[in-house]
């Protein structure tokens, strides 16, 4: 919702999601140093990027820190075992150039995957070995309850045997025979080698040892590293973060402010940086970012939907304008556990009525200026096509049918007034279980600040709902993910009704677009606590069968059952970058940014 709130978010993930914008930061950026036609705004060896300030550095994801900017920042410093691409050119979607290991060799009827590391070194010259993989595995295994990427039954629960053969080779034997594509794309994508020789200790003054090799020791090491990661003011001074494997090193970090990355001279990957420095600059919102972009004081930014009419002006000033399509879906989360409104959301007819009041085609065209397209289900369409035809949605925009559904289930619909339950009960013409007589359809949506198109989207939805007497209150906050957590009805935090974090897509998938992290019962980013046994069965089937029909069956069921309300899916952003900046395209549909590919003409 990588949201990448999750935008891969989680890498997928890496994830909630990513519903968080790169460009909409928490504070205003510092002043630029002036534009340069020959190079960047800060010189020919530097590029300045509109980018929300990352706030997590440890390459083990943590709840509340899964935003997309953290995933991009993390990959710049600490490479994952595997990188992926969706162009269909490689086995299991593995990027053979960027990945730190060869593709897995599958044996034992599909249960065992043997992985061989390539030759890579840490920034201090030490080799990257299986000991660094084992270190990561020991930490997540002993602290899985604190790992944002953990889901019961997933990694590491689905590992029957983890075996290190030598410094370069290790094997994984799974508890069951999984769909290899799913396991490689959605499980192995979580593995990130970590420098055991520098981090395996429980305090800044302790000597590095094999402390993490025992569960008790792994908890101490994890607590130490997590505490350091939660102290961003020391990111650029703490010796821990100076040992990296990625193409960049961190030279300057201002909490909620500017971040500077410098090329890592000892980087051992083949995709070596072509620039000397990347400056990441946050902004308070769309308007602030666009004003600086127009002035020519950043090299790479984005064009808000409300400003797309100025594309010609930007081009005249030497910018290339290009939409960034994402491997994503966008939705409005419903809180099934809210003690007051959860009983409403549990009624399928009511979810259907609400969905039919969202005019996705018009919102996509008018509000998003054609840079969004309807979402019809949980499986995204091919990157670059930006959505699917609204005619393919199970519930298209139909206010008349929505009104009919409400009335046929015991509601007195009062247009532009207040619709209430008139016939309580569980019969075919009654409001439903737990809905008392006189219950009003009053709902609140918690949404993101800083996005003009999002504000206009909910103004349109509010207008349509009011025509049927459904009163919608819109509450905008800086981080809608943080204030709408998964909860139990008795929790004080369970007061939210609906949550939106999809201004740049709610969820960016890993290479295999299954939904075990989103819509399975108890899934880590199932914020609304949706639960349906049939959905669980279909989600599980995608993990075990290589038959593509399983993804279709899962998609078709959830498109109809509505675990969430489907919303227009915008491009991640409409990027604008100086025409002299090379290597930006193609923009990764899973929302990583590979600054090492960039260079000036």
TrEMBL record:
It is found in: Cell envelope. Transmembrane segments: none annotated. GO terms for molecular function: peptide transmembrane transporter activity. Residues 1-23 form the signal peptide. Keywords: Signal, Transport. GO terms for biological process: peptide transport. Residues 97-510 form the Solute-binding protein family domain. One of its GO terms (cellular component) is cell envelope. InterPro entries: Peptide/Ni-bd, SBP_5, SBP_5_dom. It comes from Micromonospora coriariae. PANTHER family: PERIPLASMIC BINDING COMPONENT OF ABC TRANSPORTER, PERIPLASMIC OLIGOPEPTIDE-BINDING PROTEIN-RELATED. Belongs to the bacterial solute-binding protein 5 family. This is Peptide/nickel transport system substrate-binding protein.
């Amino acid at each position: 919702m990588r949201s990448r709130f999750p935008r891969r978010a989680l890498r997928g993930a890496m994830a909630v999601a990513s519903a968080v914008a790169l460009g909409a930061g928490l504070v205003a950026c510092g002043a630029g140093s002036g534009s340069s036609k020959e190079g960047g705004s800060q010189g020919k060896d530097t590029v300045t990027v509109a980018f929300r300030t990352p706030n997590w550095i440890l390459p083990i994801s943590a709840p509340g820190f899964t935003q997309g900017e953290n995933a991009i920042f993390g990959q710049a410093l600490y490479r994952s075992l595997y990188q992926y691409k969706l162009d269909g050119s490689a086995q299991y979607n593995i990027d053979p150039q960027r990945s730190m290991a060869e593709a897995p060799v599958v044996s034992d009827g599909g249960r065992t995957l043997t992985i061989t590391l390539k030759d890579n070194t840490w920034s201090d010259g030490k080799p990257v070995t299986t000991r660094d993989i084992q270190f990561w595995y020991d930490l997540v295994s002993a602290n899985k309850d604190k790992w944002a990427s953990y889901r019961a039954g997933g990694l590491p629960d689905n590992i029957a045997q983890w075996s290190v053969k030598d410094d370069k080779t290790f094997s994984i034997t799974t508890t069951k025979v999984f769909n290899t594509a799913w396991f490689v794309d959605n499980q192995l994508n979580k593995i990130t080698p970590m420098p055991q020789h520098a981090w395996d200790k429980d305090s800044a003054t302790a000597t590095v040892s094999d402390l993490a090799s025992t569960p008790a020791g792994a908890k101490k090491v994890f607590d130490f590293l997590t505490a350091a990661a939660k102290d961003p003011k020391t990111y650029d001074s703490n010796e821990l973060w100076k040992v990296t494997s990625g193409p960049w090193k961190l030279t300057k970090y201002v909490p909620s402010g500017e971040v500077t990355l410098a090329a890592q001279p000892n980087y051992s990957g083949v995709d070596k940086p072509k620039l000397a420095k990347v400056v990441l600059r946050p902004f308070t919102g769309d308007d602030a970012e666009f004003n600086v972009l127009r002035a020519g004081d950043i090299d790479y930014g984005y064009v808000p939907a409300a400003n797309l009419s100025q594309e010609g002006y930007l081009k005249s000033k030497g910018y290339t304008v290009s939409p960034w399509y994402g491997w994503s879906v966008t939705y409005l989360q419903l809180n099934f556990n809210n003690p007051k409104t959860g009983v409403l959301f549990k009624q399928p007819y009511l979810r259907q009525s609400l969905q039919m009041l969202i005019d996705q085609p018009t919102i996509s065209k008018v509000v998003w200026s054609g840079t969004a397209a309807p979402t019809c289900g949980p499986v995204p369409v091919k990157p670059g096509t930006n959505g699917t035809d609204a005619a393919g949605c199970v519930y298209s925009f139909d206010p008349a049918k929505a009104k009919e559904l409400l009335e046929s289930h015991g509601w007195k619909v009062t247009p532009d007034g207040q619709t209430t339950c008139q016939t309580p009960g569980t019969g075919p013409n009654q409001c439903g279980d737990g809905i008392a007589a006189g219950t009003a359809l009053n709902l609140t949506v918690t949404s993101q600040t800083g996005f003009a198109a999002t504000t206009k989207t909910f103004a349109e939805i509010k207008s349509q709902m009011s025509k049927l007497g459904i009163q919608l209150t819109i509450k905008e906050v800086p981080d809608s993910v943080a204030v709408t957590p998964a909860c139990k009805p008795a929790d004080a935090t369970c007061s939210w009704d609906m949550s939106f974090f999809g201004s740049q897509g709610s969820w960016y998938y890993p290479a295999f677009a299954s939904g075990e992290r989103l819509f399975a019962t108890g899934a880590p980013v199932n914020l609304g606590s949706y639960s349906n046994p049939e959905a669980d069965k279909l989600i599980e089937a995608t993990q075990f069968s290589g038959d593509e029909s399983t993804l279709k069956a899962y998609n078709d069921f959830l498109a109809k059952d509505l675990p969430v309300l489907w919303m227009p899916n915008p491009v991640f952003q409409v990027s604008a970058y100086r025409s002299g900046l090379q290597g930006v395209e193609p923009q990764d549909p899973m929302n990583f940014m590979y600054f090492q590919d960039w260079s000036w003409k």
